[in-house]
């Protein structure tokens, strides 16, 4: 089995329109959450969201191309172009196009295009529909359009596993390279669900924060948390074998050491009591990595700022790490980015890799009154400098999906 490393990264987030902008903001504990401006939310209980700001699509695609893509697909393509540029790989030159694949995830897909298409249908019947209505909506357009834009002719897959989609897409790409089925995989997640239907559905569920203060609405592990804040954006990684990366003297951000994905088989929205599924995912990723629990020195938590997720994830980490649970720093970067749904796992993988590279742990902001049931070291409000050799990233999704990725320094 080949060892797999990360040699390129791209990001579009509420904190910035590149990996560097996003990371600089995260280190400072800056919130990317603000007033919801995508539509008139007067009649909605949620008034805030983590929106992508001032992103220039013309740097990545022509006007006639973007019209055929939903916003989530545009983000996927742009972040993947960033990541491939960062890696220095030229498809067809560095590697054959047939040996470059794509694995991208999304939780909701083209919901904005779906809403607009339905309006057109109501206004003038099917004759009024845009010819590419179907292909702007369907979820696989993230991976397909990335493949087309980059000339990647190898494995092409789309992962739809709710909020674990981005992490699973990375894990699946990891397996493809391990098995030798591709030399390079572009993997990540994308989401753009800040629409009336997207926000409204979470309002109806009662899972979204109604705090009118944008900067303090998302407060993972805090006693006063009242729900998640929805975000948008995309993250992309370039994966290749360690052997190949060394042969071309590539910059290596870290190695993917372990991956596991399991199901709660319990409930469509609530995690299993005690985070039982999350425990098995973390245990599985650790076993896959060949590391010990003593090697894990940071966890990027799923940390959604919802009652059950934060409580059960805390319990899961305690069950997983045993007596070391209180010694390992943990943070929820969703406190700054909001919940980016299908893109969350990809962005949090990038944060985890940068923590390993820089030794800087991003904080959990707005953690002012810790929940007594969430009593671990969640790095409140201020980033921390420390040495991190190996780190774990959790992703948990509606439907009972539990995914864990372990990254380590490439040695």
Automatic annotation (TrEMBL):
Query: InterPro entries, alphabetically?
Result: 3-oxoacyl-ACP_synth-2, Beta-ketoacyl_synthase, Ketoacyl_synth_C, Ketoacyl_synth_N, PKS_Beta-ketoAc_synthase_dom, Thiolase-like
- Where in this chain does the record put each Ketosynthase family 3 (KS3) domain? 1-409
Under CDD domains, the record lists: KAS_I_II
- Show the coiled coil region(s): none
Q: Pathway, per UniProt?
A: Lipid metabolism; fatty acid biosynthesis
Class of this enzyme:
transferase
Q: Which molecular-function annotation in GO is an example for this chain?
A: 3-oxoacyl-[acyl-carrier-protein] synthase activity
One of its Pfam families is ketoacyl-synt
Question: What EC number(s) does this enzyme carry?
Answer: 2.3.1.179
Reaction(s) catalysed (UniProt annotation): (9Z)-hexadecenoyl-[ACP] + malonyl-[ACP] + H(+) = 3-oxo-(11Z)-octadecenoyl-[ACP] + holo-[ACP] + CO2; a fatty acyl-[ACP] + malonyl-[ACP] + H(+) = a 3-oxoacyl-[ACP] + holo-[ACP] + CO2
Answer whether the UniProt record assigns the keyword Lipid biosynthesis to this protein: yes
Q: SMART domains per the record?
A: PKS_KS
Look up keyword Lipid metabolism and say if it applies: yes
Keyword line: Acyltransferase, Fatty acid biosynthesis, Fatty acid metabolism, Lipid biosynthesis, Lipid metabolism, Transferase
Which family is annotated? Belongs to the thiolase-like superfamily. Beta-ketoacyl-ACP synthases family.
Provide the function of this protein: Involved in the type II fatty acid elongation cycle. Catalyzes the elongation of a wide range of acyl-ACP by the addition of two carbons from malonyl-ACP to an acyl acceptor. Can efficiently catalyze the conversion of palmitoleoyl-ACP (cis-hexadec-9-enoyl-ACP) to cis-vaccenoyl-ACP (cis-octadec-11-enoyl-ACP), an essential step in the thermal regulation of fatty acid composition.
Q: What is this protein called?
A: 3-oxoacyl-[acyl-carrier-protein] synthase 2
Source organism of this protein record: Fictibacillus barbaricus
Instruction: Specify the taxonomic lineage.
Output: Bacteria, Bacillati, Bacillota, Bacilli, Bacillales
């Amino acid at each position: 089995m080949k060892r797999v490393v990360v040699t390129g990264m791209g990001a579009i987030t509420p904190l910035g329109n590149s990996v560097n902008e996003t990371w600089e903001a995260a280190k400072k504990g800056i919130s990317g959450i603000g007033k919801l401006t995508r539509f008139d939310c007067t009649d909605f209980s949620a008034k805030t969201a983590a929106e992508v700001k001032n992103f220039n699509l013309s740097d990545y695609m022509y006007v006639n191309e973007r019209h055929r893509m939903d916003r989530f697909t545009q983000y996927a393509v742009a972040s993947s172009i960033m990541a491939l540029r960062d890696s220095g790989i030229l498809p067809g030159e560095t590697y054959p196009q047939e040996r470059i694949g794509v694995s991208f995830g999304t939780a909701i897909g083209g919901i904005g295009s779906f809403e607009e298409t339905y309006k057109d249908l109501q206004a003038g019947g099917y004759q009024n529909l845009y010819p590419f209505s179907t292909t702007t909506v369907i979820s696989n357009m993230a991976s397909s359009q990335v493949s087309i834009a980059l000339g990647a002719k190898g494995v092409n897959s789309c992962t739809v596993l709710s909020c674990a989609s981005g992490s699973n897409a990375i894990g699946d790409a990891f397996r493809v390279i391990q098995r030798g089925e591709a030399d390079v995989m572009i993997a990540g997640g994308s989401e753009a669900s800040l629409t009336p239907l997207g926000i409204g559905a979470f309002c109806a569920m009662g899972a979204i924060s109604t705090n009118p203060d944008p900067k303090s609405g998302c407060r993972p592990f805090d006693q006063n948390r009242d729900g998640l804040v929805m975000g948008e954006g995309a993250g992309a990684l370039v994966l290749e074998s360690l052997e190949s990366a060394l042969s071309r003297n590539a910059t290596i951000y870290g190695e993917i050491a372990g991956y596991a994905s399991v199901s709660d088989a319990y409930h469509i929205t609530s995690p299993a009591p005690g985070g039982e599924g999350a425990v098995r995912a973390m245990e599985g990723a650790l076993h896959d990595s060949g590391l010990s629990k003593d090697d894990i020195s940071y966890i990027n938590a799923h940390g959604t700022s919802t009652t059950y997720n934060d409580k059960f994830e805390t319990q899961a980490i305690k069950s997983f790490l045993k007596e070391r649970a209180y010694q390992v720093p943990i943070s929820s970067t969703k406190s700054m980015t909001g919940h980016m749904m299908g893109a969350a796992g990809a962005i949090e993988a990038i944060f985890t890799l940068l923590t390993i590279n820089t030794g800087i742990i991003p904080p959990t902001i707005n953690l002012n009154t810790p929940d007594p049931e969430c009593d671990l070291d969640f790095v409140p409000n201020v980033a921390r400098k420390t040495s991190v050799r190996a780190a774990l990233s959790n992703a948990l999704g509606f439907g009972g999906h539990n995914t864990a990725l372990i990254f380590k320094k490439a040695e």
